[in-house]
Amino acid sequence: MAVPVILDVDTGVDDALALLFAVAHPELELLAVSCVAGNAALEQVVDNTLRILDVAGAPDVPVAAGAVRPLLEPARSASHVHGADGLGGLVLPATSRRPVDESAVELLRRTILAHPVPVTLVALAPQTNLALLLRTHPEVAGNLERIVFMGGSASVGNATAVAEFNVWHDPEAAAIVLDAGVPCYMYGLDVFNRVAVPHERALELEQGEHRAGRIVGALLGHRVALSEDDHAEYTGLIGDAGAVCSIVAPELLRTERRPARVELAGYGRGQTLVDLRDRPGEDLLHGVADEWTPVEIALGVDADAVAALFLDTVVERLPA
Ligand code: BDR
Ligand code: CA
Predict the structure, then answer these.
(1) What is the pTM of this model?
(2) Domain range spanning residue 66?
(3) CB–CB of 66/38 below 8 Å?
(4) Cβ(170) to ligand 1 under 6 A?
């Protein structure tokens, strides 16, 4: 039976890749998509999401607009990575799809509670919608299989030296989600930064005959320069799509169950602290440690195999 999933997105070049994969893969049933401000402003995120679902030839997947900004701070887009339009300047045909007439929180609540088997919630964006959902309707936790989130890092950050963008953008939300009592799987920068498609393959797709392939190639090849002097390098990262791949091919990742928490104060604000120690330290021995939440954390990945899974799925299964 296909795994029922809901994606929470801030589309976003790599959220777009994730949406395409989620629609295409036969072992995933995409029940709904909720949108949140992150890589771009909310209105843009919704529009990008609807257009990408058209490219995917997705049936009528309900899409809802959610939070326009984080719980405490103003929205701070990642336009230097995803471009002003969130899709790196990729022009897609206008869509006749419309968002549903209810909030993201309501769509999430209704969809999760109505589903006959527990749902996997996949967070590929700042977790504002998820935090609002879990605080407003904590009963949804009972019908969630787990939360798979792209976010955090057990090593280096990207938004700051130590904080990853999705967690940094709304640290309070991420802290609420981590402690909501739902099993969490963290697909952080430790693996996110490793799964890439070779440049020649992306170019081949972009210049090929396959319509969805051309869009995937263009998304993979997008580069946004920081300034006129900046030479933006090709990365070919599949980004958020890797988190969705982990659901259908968990054997391609190495995970460890580790205590984690979100730092909310000071220079480390937005950092995911991960306890990688193999022996208890003085904090535990003297009973002065706070309780940290055990999280399944992806620390290793067969990057080539995940990239191949992604490409094979979207090229073979999306409309040519
Ligand atoms: C995350 O932030 C966004 O730029 C990407 O879409 C991804 O979800 C990476 O830090
Ligand atoms: Ca994202």
Answers:
(1) 0.96
(2) 3-317
(3) no
(4) no
